[in-house]
Automatic annotation (TrEMBL):
Uppermost EC category: hydrolase
Name of the featured protein: palmitoyl-CoA hydrolase
Species, as recorded: Rhinopithecus bieti
Gene Ontology CC: cytosol
Lineage top rank: taxon: Eukaryota
Pfam families: 4HBT
GO biological process: acyl-CoA metabolic process; fatty acid catabolic process
Keyword Lipid metabolism: yes
Length: 324
């Protein structure tokens, strides 16, 4: 390819059978593979011309729905395509299908939108793609401005910390909050010694599942991911602390907020990421123990979570209304 513009790369698809290593106690975690296929397609365009070679760094994951659970032994078909490029970023749409290889049954299990930046040590320009219709570019530009604003708005909350509490009362935020500590090793990293964002996403899902199980005393499945914002890259050798806490409970679902701290062993620099994850009980038929807010900050997070829950519920009901 040559010239200032490039054609939109063809959609790509990867297939892999789900193994026990891909699963937690109650569910298969597909987040890591979603990020991997997104990184592949978003890296290709910038290395297709004579310019500095680079890799794609995940900056944000938009609201992601988990429509059906993925089971061990099923084949995951993950397809992705580039839908928009700005000067420094790329929007990638990902769809995940599950296939039972014994019956041939296929289901759409996940849909996700991811935004990548082009960099290794600095942000590089992204070659523009050619759109088939002007409306596609205009819609993509609108989505780009929206996600950029929302990503910037999360930075002011990055000083928030999950503090441990001795002898907490049941059904309180302190009772179910949980943390995992993980040393970043070579198998977690890219060739440039930065962490695969999919590894971080998998760990956040695990912590969220622990928090929800502690609160509800039963197994749950991830229903949706509200958003994940990546503000800095994590290097090999860092220690990651992934902390989760209850944000909101409805009758049959809970929302978990997850913070990720990355502390360098060599210096005192600290990186933080934030995700809000909404999980629902398997089957959706059991009543959910209600969260008991204690502090003003917990009450504020509860009201914020309630607003997100009502918006998501209205959106789902809108999709279910028969079209004329």
């Amino acid at each position: 390819m040559s010239g200032p513009d490039i054609e939109t790369p063809s959609p790509i698809q990867i297939c892999r059978i789900m193994l026990p290593d891909d699963a937690s106690v109650a569910r298969v975690t597909i987040l890591k593979m979603i990020e991997e296929v997104g990184a592949i397609i978003s890296t290709w365009p910038c290395n297709s011309q004579n310019r500095d070679h680079c890799v794609a760094t995940l900056a944000r994951v938009e609201h992601t729905y988990f429509l059906w659970p993925m089971c061990i032994g099923e084949v995951a078909h993950i397809s992705t395509e580039i839908t928009y490029t700005s000067e420094h970023s790329v929007e990638v749409q990902v769809n995940v299908m599950s296939e039972n290889i014994l019956t041939g049954t296929k289901k759409l299990t996940n849909k996700a939108t991811l935004w990548y930046l082009k960099n290794v040590d600095k942000v590089l320009e992204v070659p523009p793609v050619v759109y088939s219709r002007q409306e596609q570019e205009e819609a993509g530009q609108k989505r780009y401005k929206t996600q950029k604003l929302e990503r910037m708005e999360t930075k002011w909350r990055n000083e928030d910390v999950v503090q441990p509490v001795l002898n907490p009362e049941p059904n309180t935020v302190s009772y179910s909050q949980s943390s995992l500590i993980h040393m970043v090793g070579p198998s977690d990293c890219t060739l440039h010694s930065f962490v695969h964002e999919g590894v971080t996403m998998k760990l956040t899902d695990e912590v969220a599942g622990i928090v929800a199980a502690r609160h509800c005393k039963t197994n749950l499945v991830t229903a949706s991911v509200n958003a994940i914002n990546f503000h800095d890259k994590i290097k090999k050798g860092c220690i990651k602390t992934i902390s989760g806490r209850m944000a909101f409970t409805s009758n049959k679902s809970v929302e978990i907020e997850v913070l990720v701290d990355a502390n360098s062993v060599a210096d005192s620099s600290q990186k933080r990421y934030r995700a809000a994850m909404s999980l629902s009980q398997e089957g959706g038929s059991l009543p959910m123990p209600q969260r008991l807010p204690e502090t003003q900050n917990e009450k504020k997070r509860f009201e914020e979570g309630k607003g997100r829950y009502l918006q998501m519920k209205a959106k789902w009901q809108g999709h279910m209304v028969p079209q004329p």
